[in-house]
Amino acid sequence: NKSLQDEIAQLKSFSEAEIDDWKANVKKLRQSVKRLQDEIAKLKSFSEAGEDDNTFENSRFKVEYSKAAAPCVQDELFRALRLFIMEYVKAESIEEEKGMNFFKRLQSEAFCHPNEILNEIQYVAQRLWTTDLKLCNGRTLYSILNEVIRKDEGEILKHAAVLSRAINELCIAGRHLKAKIAFPPDECVYRGGVMPTEHLSFFSVGRQYRVPMFLATSFQRSTAQNFCQSAWSENSTLDAVIWIIHVDPAGRTDEMELCKHANLVERTKFPDEKEYLFVPFSVFTVKIVYLSSNPTYKRPHVIHLDAALDNKLKSETLCLAPWS
User: Fold this and answer.
1) At 134, phi and psi to the nearest 5?
2) Alpha helix positions (H), 51-196
3) Coil, helix or strand for 111?
4) Are 277 and 172 in contact (CB under 8 A)?
5) What is the mean pLDDT of residues 16-39?
6) Taking Cα atoms as reference points, which of 116, 141, 196, 164 lies closest to residue 278?
7) Rounded to whole angstroms, how far apart are CA atoms 82 and 60?
8) Residue 267 contacts by C-beta under 8 Å, 6 or more apart in sequence?
9) How distant, in Å, are the alpha carbons of 109, 226, 250, 258, 271 from that of 132?
10) Around Cβ 290, how many Cβ atoms within 10 Å?
11) Cβ(64)–Cβ(160) under 8 Å?
12) pTM of the model as a whole
């Protein structure tokens, strides 16, 4: 095998200095490839519609939300809640009686706080969002609401928009009251969960996108880790993930630099969770991604994001996250 022998002889003829130069060139080439990949990822994030045609701009939720008004009194809120639940059980082929029972349990829980019912309806919406009461199929109200917003279809969106308006009284409209404004102590918030492996590629460094649902996070990393462990324990075929969402540090001392579309949920059955809630279709930019070779809850992927200061200043045609 003369040709192979000739190749071996040629390799042996290289000096150590030549080999070192070759290694250095390979390293530089790899760095160039990495920079090129990062630039491609950034270019993708700047595209108007991302990977598909679904955007906030052409969503039905935007249309219904623009027509909806925030409830001012309890009967407006509970009417929207009842119609929302009944539309959902109809679509899921669940008996109307079970849907009505779920509504009555939610209503009864809310009436445990009569002053809020009479004078602070926005806090009633907060408590509805954080309730752990479940429909007969095991779903909580917040999980159903987020599913409806993600699907973006059907008459149910009209009622989802009213409920969202009510919850957003906390996140947006109520922020003019100084006592309601909270700044994350770590200058970031945390979210834990699971994700199909095929969606990891979406979260490329530099990509900017919107999340088509309410995004619940926490001031505390331990809370996110607990949610991550719980979600992974229920479905270990998915990858465990911790999201770390950074906010502008200037917001600690400058109220004008606080994120304009998120706030701490104060009226809740679970105050220890320190939930920090972002409104639907909030904008984030991928900052850093650390992938795990064995993404269990003990060694999850870690994805760092930058939260936009103000959703209104961002394009409505940004791509939508397939998972969050």
Assistant:
1) -125, 145
2) 60-67, 74-91, 96-110, 114-119, 121-130, 141-151, 156-171
3) coil
4) no
5) 70
6) 164
7) 21
8) 113, 116, 123, 126, 127, 130
9) 11, 16, 35, 29, 13
10) 11
11) yes
12) 0.82
Q: Can you tell me the distance from the alpha carbon of 318 to that of 100, in angstroms, rounded to the nearest whole number? A: 38
Predicted pLDDT of residue 135? 97
Tokens representing residue 156 in the block: 């149910």
* Calpha distance 82→76 (Å, rounded): 10
Distance of alpha carbon 54 from the chain centroid = 17
Tokens, residue 96:
């109307």
Question: Would you state the structure tokens that stand for residue 114, as one six-digit string?
Answer: 């009569």
Residues 6+ apart with CB under 8 A from 168: 70, 279
**Residues belonging to the chain:** 324
What is the residue-wise DSSP string for 14-42? S-HHHHHHHHHHHHHHHHHHHHHHHHHHH
Predicted pLDDT at 305: 98
Average pLDDT estimate for 88-108? 97
Where residue 205 falls (left for φ over 0; alpha for ψ -120 to 50; beta otherwise) is beta
Q: What gap in Å lies between CA 285 and CA 266, rounded to an integer?
A: 27
Give yes or no for a contact between 242 and 228, defined as CB atoms under 8 angstroms apart. yes
How crowded is the C-beta side of 87, counted as CA atoms within 13 Å?
17
